[in-house]
């Protein structure tokens, strides 16, 4: 049996001369394999004598002087306030500067302490037997089911570790009737906003969300999500299937995995739903001015409007309508902050009145469809924040809302056969979910269900 030092235990000889050192004995030491004993505070004296050799034990008797409580490890939940830093927050809560710095320095290897947000919770574990507690660990939840931790080791140094909850995939499916807008109808049914935004983006190649949707149109969507064992949603996965029925016409899209890191979307016939260019390179905007002759809002006379205007709040992201190369990026005449991108097949797109350009791009840079290239503003000759968007074909402007863009890709041969097999499996999964849901509804359980 091992006996450690205790600050309140002192050994004396029978004559009172100090012989020993401080020995630590907990109020109860549980028996361990090989020891065969269970020592309580009542038997501490004899137990200590038994651990010494006869010569060491001769004439000695232990005297416990005001044996105090064993230091207690306490957990405290701190809340990040405005202007707080992780280091400052720890010091504000009586953690010694040297320990706080050591823990934050270790944590910095896997997490940037500057990423803490107002209102975020930080769990601190420290011993509570001193005015300046000894820091043992700090733990920060950086995402659902994902924590980072700095932990003091036996050598009194700190090391960092990542803690991730065990998760599993489950399939979610929703359907609904549109009475006002797709966004309102889908959110009301429980579709997560990020999934809905992706659905809108995928359909935006064929659907004009300002003019094509009518009351009593409908939608369907099925997607995966990753959840912890206790049901916490860690992340929403890819859309597997989505459909919109607009004025009796059905538009369906299916996911098809070309490789581990490449998923694209196709209609029922295996034709890619992505087009060379997007009609609306902005989300949540209102078409405020169409292509054609109009009375200019600033100049006051009628002239040709060679693009379309999308009204949106200042700072709304603007996306590249297609893959291409930036050939103009500057403040230009009445257009204000202006960018033009050259695409293939004689197409180019232009974006005007931007508040600012996205960082990382310049003239000559290649961009991919859907990346953010700038932000809505009102620079140049403008009466309010909006995007002026033009599509050029062989050097002349054409109506973005009417021009027909070619599909990005159509499947054939073995790829088409593989896609059709995936499509059939997806249709079966969709039918199974709603068959089970209908049965549950008959049993009195009408809540939305998922299939793992």
Keywords summarizing the entry:
Nuclear Transport Factor 2, Chain: A, alpha+beta, 10-stranded antiparallel beta sheet, 4 domains, single chain, 5-stranded antiparallel beta sheet, disordered N terminus
Low-confidence stretches: 1-67, 439-452
When the domains are counted, the total is 4
Q: Estimate the mean pLDDT confidence.
A: 78
Please tally the β strands and state the result.
26
Q: What would CATH call the architecture of the largest domain?
A: Roll
Approximate shape: globular
Measured on Cα atoms, how large is the radius of gyration? Answer: 34 Å
Largest sheet: 10 strands, antiparallel
**CATH C-level name of the largest domain:** Alpha Beta
Structure description:
- The N terminus and C terminus are likely disordered.
- The chain starts with 8 loop residues before the first strand and ends in a 10-residue tail after the last helix.
- The chain folds into four domains: 56 residues, no CATH class; 92 residues, Nuclear Transport Factor 2, Chain: A (Roll), CATH 3.10.450.350; 153 residues, Nuclear Transport Factor 2, Chain: A; 113 residues, Glucose Permease (Domain IIA).
- It contains seven helices and 26 strands.
- The chain is 17% helix and 37% strand.
- The strands form six sheets. Strands 15, 18, 19, 20, 21, 22, 23, 24, 25 and 26 form a ten-stranded antiparallel β-sheet that branches. Strands 5-6-7-8-9 form a five-stranded antiparallel β-sheet, with helices on one face.
- The protein is globular and about 80 Å long.
- The protein has 452 residues and is an alpha+beta fold.
- Helix 3 runs antiparallel to helix 4.
